[in-house]
Write a structure and sequence with these properties.
Blueprint (H helix, E strand, L loop, with lengths): L5 E3 L8 H4 L3 E3 H10 L8 H15 L5 H12 L1 H4 L15 H8 L2 H4 L3
Antiparallel strand pairs: 1-2
Helix pairs in contact: 3-4, 3-6
Length: 113
């Protein structure tokens, strides 16, 4: 069996631990993703933080940024997803108090929809 060689990806420049530490993919995984995915949603820090707030507000679950990323991506693509049934896998509750406080200390977080 040939050892897997890492390939660079571009999920860097974030404060989220899971994304920040995911700087490489492996050829096998990347080949499968390339073949099977229709699209990739790119999220910025503000969108990840809004995902954390939305998870708390609508599901009453605490998620770190990477765990709430599917919810944030669905929000970003809401026009494409309107009228469709979708599922978002929310995982990862390893958010520290400083990050949670930063996410929640934004004016829009206090406004209920």
């Amino acid at each position: 069996m040939r050892p897997r060689q890492p390939s660079f990806n571009y999920l860097v420049g974030t404060r989220d631990d899971r994304f920040r530490d995911s700087r490489v993919t492996f050829d096998l995984t990347f080949a499968i993703l390339k073949e099977m995915l229709d699209d990739i949603v790119v999220l910025d820090e503000a969108e990840l933080e809004e995902g954390v707030r939305a998870a708390l507000r609508y599901t009453h679950n605490l998620a770190e940024g990477s765990g709430a990323a599917p919810l944030a991506a669905a929000k970003k693509y809401e026009g494409k997803l309107a009228g469709k049934k979708i599922g978002c896998v929310m995982s990862g509750g390893n958010i520290d108090m400083r990050t949670l406080a930063r996410c929640m200390d934004i004016q829009s977080a206090h406004a209920e929809p």
